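Weekly puzzle thread! Below is a chain. First person to post its structure in token form gets bragging rights.
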Amino acid sequence: MLLSAILVALLAIISQWWFFAPITRCMTYPLTTGLLVGIFMGDPMLGMLAGANIQLVYLGWINAGGVMPSNTMVAGIYGSALTILSGANPKLAVTFAIPFSLLGLLMVQIYQTVNSFWVHRADKALDEGKVSQIRFLNYVPSFIVAFIVYGIPAFCLVMFGKSWTTSLISAIPAQFTTALEVVGGLMPALGIAMLLNYLGKRELNAFFIIGFFLTVYLKLDIMAIAIFSACIAFLVFIAQSRSNKETATAASPKKKVRRLTLQNRSGAAEEVSPTADGPVATEAAIIQYTKKLTHSDLVKTWLWEQGDEAAYNYERLQALGLTNMMIHPIRKLYPKDRQADELKKYMVFFNTEPHMVGPIIHGVALSMEEARANGQNVSADDINSVRTGLMGPAAGIGDTVQQGIFFPILASVGASLALQGNYLGPVMFTVIFELVIYTIGYIMFMFGYRKGKESVISILKNGLIGKVTNAFSIVGLMVVGAMAASRVAVRTPLVWTVGKSTMKLQSILNQLAPGLIPLGITVLVWYLVRKKVNPTWIILGIFVAGILLSYLNVLGIVKA
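Winning reply:
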């Protein structure tokens, strides 16, 4: 048990101490951590089932702009561990996890508040010219805080919790256990509703209904729905692209000229469009940069960028991590007596989506930094103006595509496979999710460096993002519809006796349309979310309503 407690504690630490994103990114998701907790505690199947059940509740909980609506890291790890310790039905994992997730909000507040102190230490270090201290301050103090706030409680839970958790489960009456299972069957409606609120557009909402009834009538599983919806989305994307091409005006003729810009460091010939002021100059002075970043330098900088949220804090969010990221290129471009001063420009408030789209901003900054080091007219204010101007659009695109669309599609498929007892579910989710977002992030980082500050503007203007987002939204809505049909797992056991006839309400509803109760519950919760009812109140409402309706024999669970 000691080794299990140590491993779970380490998992809890790195779920918040994001020292290297490709390792830590999926540790925020119960689908991944549930399986890992199960392996560490000797029951991988129960851990996976617990994590998958917990994940369904948090499909739509998106952490954007530094705001965390619930601590899914604590919910997944602590909830799965408690389920294994008590040997409980994995459907009860949700009821264990939610109290921990709310307690976890206090934990993350402590973590991000204490980390603010290291920012001021970093300011002082740069004033004193001690560049190497930035690395220490980004990683070591934040690890100690994560160890105290997350690691020690997790260790104590696993090491000393078995006796009292087993006693607690044994003391719960059977009828109350059934009521809690009803609550567990209702809870996925909240995650689905939050996704619908995020994905839903009036012209696309019908795809949710299509996905729902394809599942209840044709009994298609989540993977089949995902494939089917991807084909529909592709056809819609092609149709929109063709329509845009037909209505677009002819492109202006272009000429090749030789000129040096942030995007063209060698003065090579490039295509440009004529300007309104007349033809462009046919030849410009060719200036070679004397200080250049190599491909190896760029790769190293991108790898250091993966620790940009290790010391994430309320005061300046990603600033300390990004200053740490820039140490290598600054050392390469500037003499030692300028390095600390050049790094100071990165110690300002900064926050964007860090993994998939946001890296393009850092590539742009490197491009401008290289120009500045070679004597071009680029000031520190210019670099920060571009960075702060782009962080909002990049976050909007990155959070929408990654957390709001790509994650729930993969997590829905992964959780469904996991609930069928297939270990491929969490493994596939983790591998594909990370492979895609970090491949795209690397490409965007390099693209930003090559193209300079015009790169993001060109992406935003060409309309491609809107079409891609719509296509992914179609897939997401249909998959979410299938999830509502299969994972809001409640029914009504109400029966009436009229003379010698027995009337079952569920049978009557099934004749009208199967799945009306899950659909109605999901739509009701969706309505509450749209009305901006606090999700915490919705959770409490589901707890109370689920227990009450179970005791009144109005709602029961769907037997697997």
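Puzzle host: Confirmed. Bonus trivia for everyone else. The chain has 25 helices and six strands.
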